[in-house]
Design a protein that fits this description.
alpha/beta; 7 strands; Rossmann fold; seven-stranded mixed β-sheet; 8 helices
Length: 206
Amino acid sequence: MFNQKVVEKELRTYHRKGPNKTTRILLDQLVSFIDDQNSLLDIGGGIGAISHELSQKGLSKLMNVDASKAYLDVAQSEAERLGYRDKASFYYGDFVTLAPEIPSADVVTLDRVLCCYDDMSALVTKSIDRTNEYYGIVYPRTSWWVRLGFSGINLFQRIKGSSYRSFVHDPKVIHAIIHSHNFKRIFRAIKGIWVIEIFRRDLSKD
């Protein structure tokens, strides 16, 4: 699904236009909270747009996890080009499996990642466990027309013989897991089919 051709096309678009609209909304909010002492863990980071943008804010450490080798290679090359490779770490594989060996971070992001993973509960639980302060997610709305569209995508993938599937998970379940870890929502926006949310650890409950 995310082969070299797709990844290179996405990189060219990023070079021309910058992050996509939902990523930009997420970033614009995060930069109002973070400082140069913060660390980032971007799960399913793709070409590394969030890391590339936040590296300009002087973050102390930037970690990127992706199950696509093509994405990870491009993210590393861009980190080198942008001059922050010495502060960056890259992990190849399924985050849920790799989680025990990945350090926690002040900021954890999952930008359009939950919709690509079947075991949402495991992904949210293990990623919020790695979050010190801010947790940012972008996921699809649950409107009937969004579900219909995702069903069409999955049908097309089956016809192609691809094992890739998209998922529309229940926000109530997502929020229940996040709230159970003493995080409260501090930002929410909707852009097209996507919901953008940021949560912050409620220190008064720790």
